[in-house]
Amino acid sequence: MKVLVIEDTQDLAIWLVRFLAAKDISADISADGEDGTYKASTKYYDAIILDINLPGKNGLEVCRDLRKKEKDVPIIMLTSRNSKDDVIIGLESWADDYLVKPFDYDILVARLDALTRRNLKNKSTAILKVWKYEMDLEAVKVMDDKKVVHLSHLEFELLKYFAQNKGKVISRQELYEKVWWEFDGDFMFSKTVDVYIWYLRKKLGREIIETRKWFWYIIQ
Asked: Which residues of 5-44 are buried (b: 16+ CB within 10 A; e: fewer)?
């Protein structure tokens, strides 16, 4: 599971990300509403943990903007406000759940699990758009105008990581850590990533992944 934490209290955000990592949940951090809206709009996340009191654009506005963009990602709102009216306002902004600070981290994870399971159940498919292709995450296949492009397991996982981080320049080391997991060689000298990127370019088109410098890559 990958989540976005939109929280301007740095200590809380860092501790929360560390706790989630211990539960095998990866997380990105955003410290304000504008940046959080941008990341949530341009990257794929299984869920969003959203503080209400944010600088610039508050969490209620972020939630409404994402729903207007037809982003149906599960959203859990965090706030220090616990009155009935505050809860109603949060839920009327199309949040899926509401937690009052201070909260139990285990309860937060349990609610994340419940919301993501429900979200997958309500979706017939989980689709990522990549250039002219569609990635079906549930069926584990890539389609070009309904025609299936056959990828190996590692090719699919590599393309999925790029798709979930569109517009982000990604290092070769990060790809080894996030896609290969147990790779214990020297990423500076290994050609494994280069070979698999070559495979993807051969099957999907050279334009799909751009090389930046020597060890950095990006998918637009």
From this structure: bbbbeeeebeebbeebeeeebebbbbbbbebbbebbeebb
Q: Which fold has domain 2-122?
A: Rossmann fold (3.40.50)
d(CA 188, CA 116): 37
Instruction: Judge contact between 179 and 154, C-beta under 8 A.
Output: yes
Amino acid at 57: K
CA distance linking residue 196 with residue 174, whole number of Å: 15
Q: Record the pTM.
A: 0.56
- pLDDT, tens digit, 9 for 90 and up, residues 27-47: 999 999 999 999 888 787 889
Q: Which CATH class is domain 127-218?
A: mainly alpha
User: CA–CA distance from 53 to each of 17, 33, 50, 62, 99 (Å)?
Assistant: 19, 9, 9, 11, 13
